Amino acid sequence: MTFMKNGVADYIVTGQWAKKAAKEAEKYGKVNILASSADKTFSYIPDCSDLLVDEDADYVYICENNTIYGTKYHSLPGTKGKDLVADVSSCFLSEPMDITRYGMIFAGAQKNVGPAGVVIAVIREDLIREDVPETVPTMLKYKTQVDAGSLYNTPPCYGIYICGKVFKHLLKEGGLDAMKEKNERKAKRLYDCLDESRLFSNPVAKDSRSMMNVTFVTGKEELDKEFVKAASGRGLVNLKGHRTVGGMRASIYNAMPFEGVEKLVDFINEFEREHI
Ligand SMILES: *Cc1c(COP(=O)(O)O)cnc(C)c1O
């Protein structure tokens, strides 16, 4: 809404969130879909090395980690000089990122940072402009928020306070390098288990795997349901995949300890032994 100066924006559609974002953008200008992985139920990240970026595009938009499908960009798209805008809601603070590659990133706090109700936006200075389209409400201008130190209106103080606690905790734990190491170890344990399994598999292209959201299926809908129910009985909850894809999904955000992943792996192995 605020970045559409030329009224043109380029989107790469790798799942529900990018699709929804592209649809909303259509309210404000012309939207080009540069690439999409809809043809294979968003199970991979398309090759984005040589995209037909519109000369007039105000930005190129991606959803970096696709929460529902369990995919992540392992290299950022070539934007031919255009600013990259990324929804990083489900991978923010899971590992270090090179912020200089983006014009802007934003993340809902509720995955890795804190309670719902807080959104973190990091914007390059020159993109914080006064001259945004006239239809943009004052409080939705980034300039308004920045000038007021994010206190233009009363912010959700308690949510921000909790985020601060989490930031301090992350620093104490060794920062994002340490998070990355911990998260890689967790994800590897789970993907290795699925790769070795004769019952379960991960339906995502190997070069597109997410470190935060690990999806898996048995190939039989009934058996998937049985697994989710049995797991829940063991205290392994929230493993049901998104209703649009079915199957299972383990969201192993920062707060999930390695021991939690081990418990899941043990249960996957046990369930396999009983059902094969
Ligand atoms: C969770 C999520 C959202 C939306 O968050 P809500 O929980 O609906 O507020 C947007 N984008 C991504 C990538 C997400 O993971």
Describe it:
The structure is a single chain. With 276 residues, this protein is of the alpha/beta class. The protein has 2 domains: 8-169, Aspartate Aminotransferase, domain 2, CATH 3.40.640; 175-275, Aspartate Aminotransferase, domain 1 (Alpha-Beta Complex), CATH 3.90.1150. Helices cover 30% and strands 16% of the residues. The strands form 3 sheets. The protein has a 6-stranded mixed beta sheet, with helices on one face. Helix 4 runs parallel beside helix 6 (258-274). The protein is globular, with a radius of gyration of 20 Å. The relative contact order is 0.13. Pyridoxal-5'-phosphate (PLP) binds at residues 17, 63, 67, 87, 89-90, 108, 110-111. Pyridoxal-5'-phosphate binds next to loops.
Q: What is the H/E string? A: EHEEEEEEEHHHEHEH
CATH topology of the largest domain: Aspartate Aminotransferase, domain 2
Major β-sheet profile: 6 strands, mixed
Name of the CATH first level of the largest domain? Alpha Beta
Radius of gyration: 20 Å
Output the CATH homologous superfamily of the largest domain. Type I PLP-dependent aspartate aminotransferase-like (Major domain)
| Assembly level | single chain
Point out poorly predicted stretches.
none
Per DSSP E runs of 2 or more residues, the count of β-strands stands at 10
Mean pLDDT: 96
Helix coverage percent of residues?
25-40%
Measure the end-to-end span. Answer: 53 Å
Bound molecules: pyridoxal-5'-phosphate
The shape is globular
How many helical stretches?
6
